[in-house]
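cron nightly-structures :: item 1 of 1
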Amino acid sequence: MQAKFRSITRFVVPGLALVLAATCGGAASADPQPEIIELRGAESLGTSIPTVFSGDLRDLPRAQEWQPGDSIKEIPRRHNRPPRVVPPPAKPELDPLLAVQAGAPRSSRALTPPILNFAGQGFTGVNPPDTVGDVGLNHYIQSINGSGGAVFTVYNKADGTVAAGPINMDSLGTGNCASGLGDPVILFDQLADRWFLSEFSNSGNRMCVYISQ
């Protein structure tokens, strides 16, 4: 499978604090203090560091498969969530689409049999695997977390055979992106006929983005 990817390395400037405060008129001594809601997010996006990979994915080294007895990496679940602003309750009203939905003809079965069913990538020794994938014109690409970052495999859409992989995603990158951290994203743009792959870098607080050409 011939592929050409353009790597875009991005990073987020940490330490943003956006404070919204409501003001009201009247004497400061008599009025209660306004509620302060703190929202955190990205302040700016740094310049990208583009590189180009032009070659055959089948020629890249295969990712090392996990074997029984190898170490298992458990990623703890994060429980710290940013504060949310609760929206005001909506006014009670009847949805006009409910009547249309009730009168719609019902199908005899909710799901149709799958056209093709085949096994994806196996266990890589990392929990959670964060399994993602997307279907293109001729291929299906699946990616999961591996011990050294994200691992992806390219399957032929027609019969489910492996076209390339499993491959470490960081083998497409350079610099900070030459060492991946995982948490992959796989998307196929039907209008542009391009693949989008991404994962976090293992250093430098960067996001590694790969776009096929």
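cron nightly-structures :: done
Residues 1-12+45-61+121-213 form one domain.
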